[in-house]
Amino acid sequence: MAPEVKHSILCVDDEVDNVDALERLFRRKFNVFKATSAAAALKLLAQHPVTVIISDQRMPQMTGVEFLQESLKTHPNAIRILLTGYTDIDSVIAAINSGQIYRYVTKPWDPVDLANAVDRAVERYEMGLELVEKNRALRAALEELQTLDQAKNQFMVLVNHELKTPLTSMLSFTDLLSETRLDADQGKMLGRIKGAALRLQEMINDALEFVSAETSQTRVDLRPLSSISLFSRASLPDMVNVVAQSRHVDFEVSIENQQVMADEKLIRNVFRRLVHNAAKFASAGTNVVVTGASVDGRYRVSIENRGVPIDDARIAQLMKPFTLNENTLNHSIGTGLGLPISLALLKLHGSTLRFASEGDRVIVSFDLALT
Questions:
Q1: What is 283-326 written as a DSSP string?
Q2: Contact predicate 284/257, CB 8 Å
Q3: CATH superfamily label, 8-109
Q4: Model confidence over 72-106: pLDDT tens digits?
Q5: Strand bridging mode 287-295 / 103-106
Q6: What gap in Å lies between CA 157 and CA 161, rounded to an integer?
């Protein structure tokens, strides 16, 4: 273990006996520098790092307050203590108020009181160094975050141009090929190529949507909207109904008509994803229950299905982007972005997702502001 490095203190007084007494008081614990004038003290400061400066107020040529003020130029972080008599109290108060000194000690000083004052001054100095280091670490962390934000922006540009452009070409040519004369095997292979391309397109769009929402680049157009128009049975997209019919799942929808503040496109996206998940993972032959009502001054939308119970650990895992839980989803198809996208879009509305699992009942809900 490296030996502990002693702090250094500078004692300044025009009376030699006083600086000698201060040296005897502190030499066991600190490196002590002595000076009998402000000029000599400034020369020492130009040559040595110092933690604490102790100065008498009444000195020739330059007062203690003036000297301590001058010492700020070379040792701005040093802690300053002024030795003074009661007659100098006005100048001392002015120095304290201007931040030039940490505290003052009246003469004749009490050795215990002065030693304690220096110990506290050293602690304050060390805290200041620690704060500087923490600020440096925070600046480094901020720079790293800014770099990550820049990387996300570059990622979005890359995906938008370098991936979507060739993908669009692939889909265009598969459409052209489908209009030509193909035998059964060629048609089958072309169908699989187009299916894979459409799947890739969905993954790209989901990734872009998630990154855009997470980095607050998604434009939000909040306006009063009817809850009936947003969440009624008629608002369910065809893809949700197709999934429900394939699994013999029906919908029970009960929506209280209110005016809510929301971005119509974004909230429809959230609602579609959540209802689609509920229909997809509900037990065959059961109902998905959709309700909307005013709760505690906000409008709450709840979507309930019956299926495989989900515990808190699985919910937390599913909320992480690009996470697939095959035990929950019963398959490995998906980007793992459905719930994270919904959560990110709800955050833009000052809302969040809530989950509750009671037996085989899984309920997901979110709130919106009422107008």
A1: PTT-EEEEEEEEETTEEEEEEEEEBS---HHHHHHHTSTT---H
A2: no
A3: Response regulator (3.40.50.2300)
A4: 999 999 999 999 876 667 767 767 766 578 888 88
A5: unpaired
A6: 6
